[in-house]
Write a structure and sequence with these properties.
12 strands; disordered C terminus
């Protein structure tokens, strides 16, 4: 159902379950995502597939659904011959499809409109490097129209996600300022630095004083890199932390696929959730190669934690 609380209010009361990798579920449904538009192509060619993928995560226990707009940009659609008006419709549809997928369940489902980095539009893996050679002002100009369109579609939050460097984070925050929708800011990281190499202390500090930013954290990274980043984000910003790492596999930008070999680092595991929660995480889920089965495990761990909290609370009364 459509939420009766704001996402910020819900985060103030406890932890919420994010969904997992939308593309993973779409592939499981038999969709071809080899196009440069990736899952965004299906906004035009297979919207029913996107809604079905969202619904799979709702059944798995997700409380927050991230839209299929990560790689949806006016520039990317234009390369496919899609005009600006139609592109605006498709961006708005991404919010509608997620909202519809959560409408039939008797619990609150929040919708996060995904705003991916400039590198996602390039479709060459550069979102894992950053440093595109563009100024903050140029990046702001790129992001603003899409943010305005998504905000007008009525999501509960804008997910400024997989951000590889501080210049782009600054541009995204500027572009989202005054849009009337709260945001979360989530970096993709390597160790204690952004993918572009800036210290996370500087990266998280950009959001510390931003009233519209309701959560800060990391996504699309190795789970082991999330461990330290969660605590750092909480300490620097004082805000709830969002964390949704990959399974632990490596991305092959040339082949446009995740490695099939066993991860080098410890994989994503629900066992890490308690560590992240203790450090300040309130939005917890998965990114690439984390599907509905794993989100079911995440939901079970968080539900068990809530039961324990209630028991402890009643024992003290």
């Amino acid at each position: 159902m459509k939420p009766v609380r704001t996402l910020a209010a819900a985060l103030g009361e406890g932890s919420l379950v994010l969904d997992g990798g939308l593309s993973d579920q779409l592939r499981a449904q038999g969709c071809d995502l080899s196009d440069d538009l990736w899952s965004a192509r299906l906004l035009a060619d297979g919207p029913q597939q996107i809604e079905a993928a969202h619904a799979a995560y709702v059944r798995a226990g997700a409380q927050v659904l991230i839209t299929a707009s990560y790689q949806a940009t006016y520039e990317g659609f234009a390369r496919r011959g899609v005009g600006r008006d139609r592109a605006s419709e498709l961006l708005a549809d991404s919010v509608t499809l997620a909202r519809r997928a959560g409408a039939e369940v008797a619990r609150e489902i929040w919708v996060a409109a995904s705003v991916g980095p400039y590198g996602a539009m390039l479709a060459d893996g550069s979102e894992y490097r950053g440093r595109y050679g563009l100024s903050v002002r140029e990046l702001e100009r790129f992001h603003r129209p899409r943010i305005e369109t998504l905000a007008a579609a009525g999501p509960d939050v804008l997910a400024l996600e997989t951000v590889p460097d501080t210049d782009e984070a600054e541009a995204l925050l500027r572009a989202a300022g005054g849009c009337g929708v709260p945001v979360w800011l989530s970096y993709t990281v390597a160790g204690d630095r952004t993918r572009a190499g800036q210290p996370l202390t500087e990266a998280f500090a950009l959001a510390a004083g931003e009233h519209d930013v309701i959560a800060v954290g990391v996504n699309c990274c190795d789970p082991s890199d999330a461990d330290g980043a969660v605590a750092l984000a909480a300490t620097i910003t004082g805000k709830p932390v969002v964390v949704y790492p990959n399974s632990g596999e490596e991305w092959d930008a040339k082949a446009k696929r995740w490695s099939l070999e066993a991860p080098v680092h410890p994989p994503f595991s629900p066992d890490r959730l308690h560590t992240w929660q203790s450090a300040g995480a309130r939005l917890l889920g998965g990114c690439c190669c984390v599907g509905p089965a794993r989100i079911t495990e995440v939901a079970a761990v968080l539900d068990a934690g809530r039961v324990d909290e209630r028991r402890q609370g009643s024992s003290r009364t």
